[in-house]
Amino acid sequence: MICPNCGAENPENATYCTLCYAKFSIPDPHLTDDRMDHEIDERYKGLRLLCPNCQEISPISSQYCLKCGFIFDNIDDYTISVEKQEELSKVKREQKEKELEKILSAPIVVTPESDGTEVMRSMDEALKEKKMARLHARGKEAIAYSAKIIALMSEEMERRGHKLRSSLRLLTEDPLVDLYDLEVEFTLELD
User: Fold this and answer.
1) Hey, which end of the chain has fewer CB within 10 Å, N or C?
2) How many helices and strands, by DSSP H and E, does the chain display?
Protein backbone atom coordinates (compact mmCIF):
# COMPACT_ATOMS: atom_id res chain seq x y z
CA MET A 1 0.00 0.00 0.00
CA ILE A 2 1.41 3.38 -1.01
CA CYS A 3 0.85 6.23 1.44
CA PRO A 4 -1.23 8.97 -0.22
CA ASN A 5 0.40 11.56 2.05
CA CYS A 6 4.14 10.92 1.54
CA GLY A 7 4.35 8.13 -1.05
CA ALA A 8 6.10 5.63 1.25
CA GLU A 9 5.48 1.92 0.70
CA ASN A 10 3.67 0.16 3.56
CA PRO A 11 2.34 -3.36 4.25
CA GLU A 12 -1.09 -3.96 2.69
CA ASN A 13 -2.91 -4.28 6.02
CA ALA A 14 -1.28 -1.17 7.60
CA THR A 15 -3.55 1.35 9.30
CA TYR A 16 -0.79 4.01 9.62
CA CYS A 17 2.09 5.01 7.38
CA THR A 18 5.42 3.79 8.74
CA LEU A 19 7.14 6.98 7.56
CA CYS A 20 4.80 9.93 8.17
CA TYR A 21 2.25 8.27 10.51
CA ALA A 22 -0.71 9.32 8.35
CA LYS A 23 -3.79 7.29 9.22
CA PHE A 24 -5.09 5.11 6.40
CA SER A 25 -8.79 4.87 6.02
CA ILE A 26 -11.07 3.20 3.57
CA PRO A 27 -12.59 6.21 1.88
CA ASP A 28 -16.07 6.36 0.54
CA PRO A 29 -15.50 6.27 -3.26
CA HIS A 30 -18.01 9.10 -3.61
CA LEU A 31 -16.03 11.47 -1.34
CA THR A 32 -12.90 13.34 -2.35
CA ASP A 33 -10.27 14.28 0.25
CA ASP A 34 -11.52 17.87 0.20
CA ARG A 35 -15.10 16.72 0.69
CA MET A 36 -14.08 14.43 3.59
CA ASP A 37 -12.21 17.33 5.27
CA HIS A 38 -15.24 19.55 4.72
CA GLU A 39 -17.57 16.97 6.30
CA ILE A 40 -15.23 16.60 9.30
CA ASP A 41 -15.09 20.39 9.66
CA GLU A 42 -18.89 20.59 9.55
CA ARG A 43 -19.42 17.72 12.01
CA TYR A 44 -16.92 19.14 14.50
CA LYS A 45 -17.55 22.84 13.80
CA GLY A 46 -15.67 25.10 16.22
CA LEU A 47 -13.65 22.26 17.75
CA ARG A 48 -9.91 21.65 17.63
CA LEU A 49 -7.67 18.75 18.60
CA LEU A 50 -5.55 18.95 21.75
CA CYS A 51 -2.47 16.74 21.73
CA PRO A 52 -2.15 14.85 25.04
CA ASN A 53 1.58 14.54 24.45
CA CYS A 54 2.69 18.17 23.97
CA GLN A 55 -0.51 20.19 24.57
CA GLU A 56 -0.35 21.70 21.06
CA ILE A 57 -3.63 22.54 19.35
CA SER A 58 -4.20 21.26 15.81
CA PRO A 59 -7.01 21.71 13.27
CA ILE A 60 -9.84 19.19 13.55
CA SER A 61 -8.97 17.55 10.21
CA SER A 62 -5.38 16.74 11.32
CA GLN A 63 -4.47 13.09 11.47
CA TYR A 64 -1.51 13.77 13.76
CA CYS A 65 -0.18 16.56 15.97
CA LEU A 66 1.51 19.21 13.89
CA LYS A 67 4.18 19.73 16.56
CA CYS A 68 5.18 16.30 17.90
CA GLY A 69 3.53 13.85 15.48
CA PHE A 70 1.17 12.21 18.00
CA ILE A 71 -1.44 10.23 16.05
CA PHE A 72 -5.05 11.20 16.65
CA ASP A 73 -6.51 7.73 16.28
CA ASN A 74 -9.99 8.73 17.52
CA ILE A 75 -10.62 12.45 17.18
CA ASP A 76 -13.52 12.35 19.65
CA ASP A 77 -11.00 11.62 22.43
CA TYR A 78 -8.94 14.75 21.72
CA THR A 79 -11.46 17.47 20.77
CA ILE A 80 -11.67 20.73 22.70
CA SER A 81 -14.01 23.69 22.35
CA VAL A 82 -13.00 27.14 21.16
CA GLU A 83 -13.49 28.46 24.70
CA LYS A 84 -11.15 25.82 26.13
CA GLN A 85 -8.67 26.55 23.32
CA GLU A 86 -8.70 30.28 24.18
CA GLU A 87 -8.26 29.48 27.86
CA LEU A 88 -5.25 27.23 27.12
CA SER A 89 -3.76 29.86 24.81
CA LYS A 90 -4.11 32.51 27.52
CA VAL A 91 -2.37 30.26 30.08
CA LYS A 92 0.47 29.53 27.61
CA ARG A 93 0.85 33.24 26.85
CA GLU A 94 1.03 34.12 30.57
CA GLN A 95 3.62 31.38 31.19
CA LYS A 96 5.72 32.62 28.28
CA GLU A 97 5.58 36.19 29.61
CA LYS A 98 6.68 35.02 33.08
CA GLU A 99 9.57 33.07 31.55
CA LEU A 100 10.63 36.13 29.57
CA GLU A 101 10.55 38.30 32.70
CA LYS A 102 12.99 35.89 34.33
CA ILE A 103 15.48 36.00 31.46
CA LEU A 104 15.18 39.58 30.17
CA SER A 105 16.99 42.44 31.83
CA ALA A 106 15.58 45.94 31.96
CA PRO A 107 16.46 47.76 28.73
CA ILE A 108 19.57 49.90 28.76
CA VAL A 109 18.90 53.12 26.84
CA VAL A 110 21.90 54.10 24.74
CA THR A 111 22.40 57.61 23.40
CA PRO A 112 25.46 59.03 21.63
CA GLU A 113 26.35 60.66 24.97
CA SER A 114 26.12 57.42 27.01
CA ASP A 115 29.18 56.26 28.91
CA GLY A 116 30.27 53.14 26.99
CA THR A 117 32.03 51.67 30.03
CA GLU A 118 28.87 51.98 32.12
CA VAL A 119 26.77 50.40 29.36
CA MET A 120 29.21 47.47 29.12
CA ARG A 121 29.20 47.09 32.91
CA SER A 122 25.37 46.95 32.92
CA MET A 123 25.41 44.41 30.08
CA ASP A 124 27.99 42.30 31.91
CA GLU A 125 25.88 42.27 35.10
CA ALA A 126 22.80 41.12 33.18
CA LEU A 127 24.76 38.39 31.40
CA LYS A 128 26.31 37.18 34.69
CA GLU A 129 22.76 36.78 36.05
CA LYS A 130 22.02 34.57 33.00
CA LYS A 131 19.68 37.20 31.63
CA MET A 132 19.48 38.67 28.17
CA ALA A 133 20.97 42.14 28.04
CA ARG A 134 18.86 44.59 26.03
CA LEU A 135 20.00 47.85 24.52
CA HIS A 136 17.53 50.41 23.18
CA ALA A 137 18.86 52.95 20.73
CA ARG A 138 17.07 55.69 18.77
CA GLY A 139 18.64 57.44 15.78
CA LYS A 140 21.55 56.50 13.58
CA GLU A 141 24.28 57.78 15.94
CA ALA A 142 22.90 55.91 18.95
CA ILE A 143 22.45 52.74 16.88
CA ALA A 144 26.00 52.95 15.52
CA TYR A 145 27.34 53.62 19.04
CA SER A 146 25.40 50.60 20.37
CA ALA A 147 26.85 48.41 17.63
CA LYS A 148 30.36 49.58 18.58
CA ILE A 149 29.72 48.79 22.27
CA ILE A 150 28.38 45.35 21.34
CA ALA A 151 31.46 44.65 19.20
CA LEU A 152 33.74 45.60 22.11
CA MET A 153 31.67 43.50 24.52
CA SER A 154 31.81 40.56 22.12
CA GLU A 155 35.62 40.81 22.01
CA GLU A 156 35.73 40.93 25.82
CA MET A 157 33.49 37.86 26.10
CA GLU A 158 35.65 35.94 23.61
CA ARG A 159 38.71 36.86 25.67
CA ARG A 160 36.92 35.31 28.67
CA GLY A 161 36.11 32.18 26.67
CA HIS A 162 32.44 32.93 26.00
CA LYS A 163 30.53 33.63 22.84
CA LEU A 164 28.05 36.47 22.70
CA ARG A 165 24.98 36.05 20.52
CA SER A 166 23.06 39.14 19.49
CA SER A 167 19.84 39.85 17.69
CA LEU A 168 18.24 43.03 16.48
CA ARG A 169 14.59 44.02 16.31
CA LEU A 170 12.83 47.16 15.19
CA LEU A 171 10.88 49.05 17.81
CA THR A 172 9.65 51.64 15.32
CA GLU A 173 6.33 50.72 13.77
CA ASP A 174 5.55 53.95 11.95
CA PRO A 175 6.88 54.61 8.45
CA LEU A 176 10.33 56.16 8.60
CA VAL A 177 10.88 59.65 7.30
CA ASP A 178 14.28 60.16 8.86
CA LEU A 179 16.90 57.76 10.25
CA TYR A 180 16.75 59.74 13.50
CA ASP A 181 13.26 58.27 14.01
CA LEU A 182 14.50 54.68 13.80
CA GLU A 183 14.44 52.88 17.16
CA VAL A 184 15.90 49.39 17.66
CA GLU A 185 16.52 46.87 20.40
CA PHE A 186 19.69 44.80 20.52
CA THR A 187 19.32 41.63 22.57
CA LEU A 188 22.45 39.87 23.78
CA GLU A 189 22.94 36.52 25.47
CA LEU A 190 25.79 34.15 26.13
CA ASP A 191 25.97 31.04 23.96
Assistant:
1) C
2) 4, 7
